[in-house]
Write a sequence for this structure.
């Protein structure tokens, strides 16, 4: 019988209770054509070392839980096939630019705080968005097309791991949060653009971006956060020059009613 | 027992070596120096012409014909071209979607780069070339 093909995985290990510095553990994992890196980590946890800690859930690129650095690239490990890394080894690390709680688990509290900061919900000046009387706010397919791409984010944080500005300045608002704010600014049903722009132009927000562009390259959902940030910069610049009329004519549609 | 002792990877000044795209970004930013140097050379020659001393201006233009200045100008041209082209290619991301959206269809990045970058560049270059041909 032919010997089973294997591939080496080097896994980042860090236990805050016993370690001062991280190290790597190497495991031989059976190679299967249809296995992804997440399958390999789960196999190690089930068969070799149950102490490995990692996050995962849906295994189909929707939940955004299993983001890790695979050979230095931010990847959803449920979509990173072992066959693409043959003959190996594959080095798996926690997402870069985040504090590591344990092994492959990062602390994403700072990310969640940034997301909530941009007021990612529809703001209306005079009516209550939670009041269903009078029906829904009407929006044309063309107005939806303007921001739909930016609403596809699954909060996997790969863009944060790819952003060198965040590595240097952890307080930088970051790609996903700015893209989310911009998504609501472009929404014709929303009336909170200018209060959101005030937040998005604070220190460490849109102007912190140096346009490296890797956030858009690694995004598994093709959200293009780099494009959103540049768009946000444009509307912020027009707003600061008191040219909101240009914003409303050319950047975002407003005024959707019921 | 839990231990709240998150590990933070130290920041390294060699960060840009981590990914090829970071290196390309650094080259893109560094080539802005080529644009700056060329503008300095160009303005200093114009200043001499502005003073009205034609002899000094001609001497300056003659000096620029030496191999050193040829080589330097060639390097600066290469840097400026790289800088311009990489920025033209990024321009579509900075453009607002609304004016370039027709119904639900949006113009692609290639068309936007031509519209906002390469097109105006070619047009201005053509005008300068025509004016130059007529005047000189």
């Amino acid at each position: 019988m032919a010997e089973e093909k294997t591939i080496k995985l080097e896994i980042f290990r860090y236990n805050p209770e016993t370690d001062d510095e991280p190290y790597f553990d190497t495991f031989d994992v059976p190679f299967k054509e249809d296995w992804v890196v997440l399958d390999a980590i789960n196999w190690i946890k089930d068969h070799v070392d149950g102490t490995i800690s990692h996050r995962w859930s849906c295994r189909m690129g929707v939940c955004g839980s299993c983001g890790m650095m695979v050979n230095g690239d931010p990847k959803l490990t449920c979509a990173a096939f072992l066959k693409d890394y043959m003959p190996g080894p594959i080095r798996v690390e926690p997402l870069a630019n985040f504090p590591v709680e344990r092994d492959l688990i990062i602390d994403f509290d700072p990310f969640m705080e940034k997301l909530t900061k941009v007021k990612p919900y529809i703001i209306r000046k005079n009516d209550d968005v939670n009041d269903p009387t009078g029906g829904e706010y009407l929006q044309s397919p063309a107005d939806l097309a303007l921001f739909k791409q930016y609403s596809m984010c699954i909060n996997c944080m790969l863009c944060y791991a790819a952003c060198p500005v965040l590595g240097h300045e952890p307080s930088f608002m970051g790609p996903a949060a700015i893209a989310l704010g911009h998504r609501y600014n472009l929404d014709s049903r929303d009336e909170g653009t200018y209060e959101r722009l005030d937040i998005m132009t604070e220190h460490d927000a849109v102007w912190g971006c140096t346009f490296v562009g890797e956030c858009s390259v690694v995004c598994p959902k093709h959200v293009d956060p780099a494009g959103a940030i540049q768009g946000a910069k444009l509307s912020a610049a027009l707003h600061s020059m008191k040219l909101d009329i240009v914003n409303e004519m050319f950047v975002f549609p407003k005024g959707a009613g019921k | 027992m839990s231990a709240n002792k998150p590990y933070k990877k130290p920041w390294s000044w060699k960060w840009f070596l981590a990914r090829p795209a970071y290196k390309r970004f650094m080259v893109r930013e560094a080539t802005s120096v080529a644009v700056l140097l060329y503008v300095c050379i160009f303005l200093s020659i114009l200043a001499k012409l502005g003073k009205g001393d034609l002899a000094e201006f001609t001497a300056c233009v003659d000096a620029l014909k030496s191999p050193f200045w040829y080589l330097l100008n060639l390097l600066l041209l290469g840097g400026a071209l790289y800088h311009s082209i990489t920025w033209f290619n990024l321009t579509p991301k900075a453009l607002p979607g609304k004016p370039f959206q027709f119904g639900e269809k949006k113009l692609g990045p290639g068309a936007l780069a031509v519209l906002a970058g390469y097109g105006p560049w070619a047009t201005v270059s053509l005008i300068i070339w025509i004016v130059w041909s007529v005047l000189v």
Q: What stands out?
A: The mean pLDDT of chain B is 90.
